[in-house]
Amino acid sequence: MAESLPLEMLTYILSFLPLSDQKEASLVSRAWYCAAQNALREQPGLTSLDLSGCSELTDGALLAVSRGLRHLRHLGLGKLQRLTDVGCTALGALRELQSLNMAECCLVSGRELAQTLGSVHGSPPHLTSLSLAYCSSLKSHLELEHRASDLKDPCPEPQGPSLLMLQALQELDLTACSKLTDASLAKVLQFPQLRQLSLSLLPALTDMGLVAVARGCPSLERLALSHCSHLSDEGWAQAASSWPRLQHLNLSSCSQLTEQTLDAIRQACRQLRVLDVAMCPGINMAAVRHFQAQLPQVSCIQSRFVGGADLTLTL
Fold first, then answer.
1. Over the stretch 24-64, which tens digit does the pLDDT of each residue have?
2. Do 108 and 194 belong to one domain?
3. Maximum Cα–Cα distance for the chain, whole Å?
4. Nearest by Cα to 128 from 192, 183, 174, 194
5. Distance (Å, rounded) from C-alpha 1 to C-alpha 13?
6. CATH of the domain at 20
7. Which of 14, 15, 52, 163 registers the highest number of CB atoms within 10 A of its CB?
8. Which residues, other chains included, contact 243 with Cβ-Cβ below 8 Å and sequence gap of 6+?
9. pLDDT tens digits along 182-216
10. Whether 1 and 63 share a structural domain
């Protein structure tokens, strides 16, 4: 009897079912399948979806999501280990997407992701938050096709697929994207509105990259650079003045830093509230105490194992 119902009526009925039941109903017949697809498309309420950890999901699942949930604003795809560039192309249909978590999606190469997010239909999505942490397969040319001849004066306008077009971006997590280099970071990290950035566990990041990021992202309030062992006092002497709004800073296990970096931060980052210099052997307890005295508004200084001591100073 249900087969004789108009498609619109059948769609209306199925719209009251939970997603799992709609999936089962779609297997009844072709008419029911069409009705279930229509019901999925017409659900206006679902704006947030977290599929993180669903390791068996493939590109087909993301294609289905992009067709049926066009109003998604927040999408979590962390640890989807079978997701590839094919699935990434589906993201272009999610025009209202504001935050995207693709941490540990290790089969995504980067070039297709940049093309999809950076130049879909000539207009970028309104992404404000993007996490690509632990995507170790991302290559150094991850975000761009354009060419910049001088590292010190990177080309401000992308000439090809580039995440540079995501000018509304406010949060970016590139933790452990180990193939990123100073050159790629200098060219692509030019986000004047970016407030939160993680470049922790980037073994190739040096002072040159740090200074370039400081110039390209002057509005940072939170910055994580833990385990970036090539950063030195000289880099921070140049970079610190670009971040007057910095409030949270993680420099743990940056083995080359000394009290000179603390002095540069103290003078330039007057709004700082939280600092982590744990496991920094070049910073001693005297320097930590002096920093605390000079910036009493800093509510927490994580300084475990500084100078051989195990200490956390808090107010």
1. 777 788 887 888 777 766 655 578 888 898 888 888 888 87
2. yes
3. 83
4. 194
5. 14
6. 1.20.1280
7. 163
8. 214, 218, 220, 223, 268, 269
9. 988 888 888 999 999 999 999 999 999 999 999 99
10. no
Rounded CA gap, 116 and 162, in Å? 9
CA 314 to chain centre: 29
Q: Are 19 and 163 members of one domain?
A: no
pLDDT of residue 307: 60
Could you tell me how far CA 177 lies from the centroid of its own chain?
11
Terminus-to-terminus CA distance in the chain, angstroms?
72
- Which of helix, strand or coil describes residue 264? helix
Q: Which of 161, 183, 211 is the last residue of a domain?
A: 211
* Joined tokens for residue 116: 């999809």
Q: What is the pTM of this model?
A: 0.77
Specify whether the CB–CB gap between 88 and 116 falls below 8 A.
yes
The helix/strand/coil state of 298 is coil
> Among 189, 211, 233, which residue terminates a domain?
211
Q: 227: which 2 tokens?
A: 């385990």
State whether 167 and 184 are in the same domain.
yes
- Residue 119: count other Cβ atoms within 10 Å of its Cβ: 18
**Same domain for 131 and 161?**
yes
pLDDT of residue 176: 93
Same domain, 29 and 74: no
- How many angstroms separate the CA atoms of 221 and 243, rounded? 8
Q: H-helix or E-strand containing 301?
A: strand 300-302
Q: Hey, which residues does 101 pair with through a beta bridge?
A: 76, 131
Q: Which domain holds residue 241?
A: 221-315
pLDDT for 101-131, tens place per residue?
999 988 887 777 777 776 544 445 578 999 9
As a dihedral over the C-alpha atoms of residue 265, residue 266, residue 267, residue 272, rounded to 10 degrees, the angle is: 80
83 lies in the same domain as 124:
yes
Cα 102 to Cα 79, 172, 237, 259, distances in angstroms: 7, 11, 34, 37
CB 218 within 8 A of CB 238: no
Burial profile 271-296: b = 16 or more Cβ within 10 angstroms, e = fewer = ebeebbbbbbebbbeebbeebbeebe
Q: Say which CATH number the domain at 164 has.
A: 3.80.10.10
Please count the structural domains in the chain: 3
